[in-house]
Structure to design on (112 residues):
């Protein structure tokens, strides 16, 4: 097969530099990239996930909540995966816990 490779490529060219200043700069850039990735992406995402888990785990009857769809109501019943919220005197909705976006301070619904 060597007859298909030209002589210029068969020589292999100049030997590559072993180690040195270029390698240490690459390592510094890699470490810098990882630090930026951690500070800007992974850490805030983990913080938001923890806050959401605490919000959904702490739901109880009587809490006033807003869903991700914008429906506001008072929790009447809490089960493992669902909550029943009262949006008016005669209307109750069964909603997944994951759809709860925020809790409201007590008395907010009466002020609306």
């Amino acid at each position: 097969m060597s007859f298909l490779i030209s002589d210029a490529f068969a020589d292999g060219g100049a030997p590559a530099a072993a180690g040195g200043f270029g390698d240490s700069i690459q390592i510094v850039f890699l470490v810098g990239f990882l630090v930026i990735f951690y500070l800007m992406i992974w850490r805030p995402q983990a913080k938001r996930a923890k806050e959401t888990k605490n919000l959904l785990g702490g739901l109880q009857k009587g809490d006033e909540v807003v869903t991700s769809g914008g429906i506001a109501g008072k929790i009447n019943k809490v089960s493992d995966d669902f909550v029943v919220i009262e949006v008016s005197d005669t209307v109750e909705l069964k909603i997944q816990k994951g759809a709860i976006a925020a809790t409201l301070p007590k008395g907010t619904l009466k002020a609306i």
Observations:
- The chain has two domains: 15-56, 60-111.
- The mean pLDDT is 85.
- The CA atoms of residues 73 and 87 lie 4 Å apart.
